[in-house]
Amino acid sequence: MKSRTIITVLGKDQKGIIAKVCTYLSDNGINILDINQTIVNGFFNMMMIVDMKDVEKDFSVINSELDELGKSIGVKVEAQREDIFDMMHRI
Amino acid sequence: MINFKEVQETNDMIQKENLDVRTITLGISLLDCISDDINRLNEKIYDKITKKAEKLVATGNEIGKEFGIPIVNKRISITPAALIGASAAKSPEDFVAIAKTLDRAAKQVGVNFLGGFSALVSKGMTTSDKLLMQSIPQALAETDFVCSSINLGSTKTGINMDAVRLMGDIVHQTAEATKDRDSIGCAKLVVFCNAPDDNPFMAGAFHGVTESDAIINVGVSGPGVVHEALKKTRGKSFEYLCETIKKTAFKITRVGQLVAREASRRLDVPFGIVDLSLAPTPAIGDSVADVLHEIGVEHPGAPGTTAALALLNDQVKKGGIMASSYVGGLSGAFIPVSEDQGMIDAVEAGALTIEKLEAMTCVCSVGLDMIAIPGDTKPTTIAGIIADEMAIGMINAKTTAVRLIPVIGKSVGEDVEFGGLLGRAPVMPVNSFACDEFVNRGGRIPAPVHSFKN
């Protein structure tokens, strides 16, 4: 399985969303490869492609910590392994 | 690299259109549990299932979380119990004891169904097969998670009409045995013609004797995703319609392939097949009827429905076959009534009858499924309906099945609520003309000729 992971952040726009998410990623040794972010009608929508090869924590731990972080900011943060998108969209 | 649009498309399928992995089913061979002592047999069955499936549920949940896709059910299928119990079980009660052991094992490992309380009797019945069949009413009434299936015929062997006749009685007795719960026992009982060995879906899953010791089969579903995709094809030609179904089926199956591969790796159990079945649930937007409506019929049952279903079933298979080298099971479109709100609406609108459903089963992936009928329907009539459905399977070399629920104490016009995934069903009228003399003849219907196809 590849170490690349997609992180999506969805919710009402406010100051500091990217800062908080990126701080968490950096603290946990997660490297950001690509970021795409838009705001539609005040709704914040971000997708990141990250590399988790140097991460020590379990994927499930990262996932639940991101979920907690999202709740504290008031947005939905989700991490999914890139394989599901690769399988579906690439032959 | 994956782009934003692709991520959004996948996540919309999961979050808005009910795409899910319907089941990871662990097939377990129980052939090495065979013993001539019933207690020893039960002990060995319990130990083997609880050991092999120990990590199934946790692993399924873990994969679901990592990929962000719900894996709704984790299930087990076993070698047909009539084979396993043959040397130990001397009475139907012994088979009830085996069913209870299976139920206990299923509960211990946390799966929500276990299939394989089964007998394969397409040509003849052994003593053990008969005992198992006689035990079904009590076994299904006294267990929660055990599912039973009987293969009554095949294209190669013909139809075992003695077994068909017997199953007419058994379905009726099973309904009686669970009449305090709207005859729900019958929802866990299905009869087949040409049953596949590697079907991950219930109630008909069993682990064929040609399979290896343990195997992972995965069932993916997504009628909501197909429905959503087809909204963009309104007014366009069949070519465009079929392309869209194929592309969507491809995407869905790829997810199944990924989950199957991961489950296989993490559980250290070989990967068997991916079954892509458009399997509806009572949830709004998770309906095969809605897909048929989107293809262009007002309600399922309207003229054109059989053709619409035929093309849907075929394109789903074509898309799936491209996505995984090991597509198997029952892949196609299921048309259960109680589990699909659109089908229920069609019945209530007067558009859909059992006779039209029977025609639709000629081209759908399985057969007459989850249909509530009046509780006073004669066992011979149930046997007649089963025989008709078996004949469709035998002649057309396809899998067909019957899962009828004669709801004791209820008649046409009334409703029955099964709850959960099993849904709600209006009691449908059955043709009341008799077929007793036909089903009481005894013996077999011979296998059909395999040339002169017309």
Major sheet characteristics of chain A = 4 strands, antiparallel
Number of helices of chain B: 15
**What letter string, H or E per element, gives the SSE order of chain B?**
HEHHEHHEHEEHEEHHEHHEHHEHEEEHE
- Strand order, biggest sheet of chain A? 2-3-1-4
- CATH architecture field of the largest domain in chain B: Alpha-Beta Barrel
Which class of secondary structure composition applies to the elements of chain B? Answer: alpha/beta
CATH top level assignment of the largest domain in chain B: Alpha Beta
Query: What name does CATH use for the topology of the largest domain in chain B?
Result: Anaerobic Ribonucleotide-triphosphate Reductase Large Chain
Q: Per DSSP, what share of the residues of chain A sits in E-state strands of 2 or more residues?
A: 35-45%
N-to-C CA distance of chain A: 17 Å
Oligomer, anyone?
heterodimer
Helix content of chain A: 25-40%
- Secondary-structure content class of chain A: alpha+beta
CATH topology of chain A: Alpha-Beta Plaits
Number of domains of chain A: 1
Poorly predicted segments of chain B: none
Shape of chain B: globular
Report mean pLDDT of chain A, rounded to a whole number.
Answer: 92
Query: Could you say which overall geometry of chain A the principal axes of the C-alpha atoms support?
Result: globular
Poorly predicted parts of chain A: none
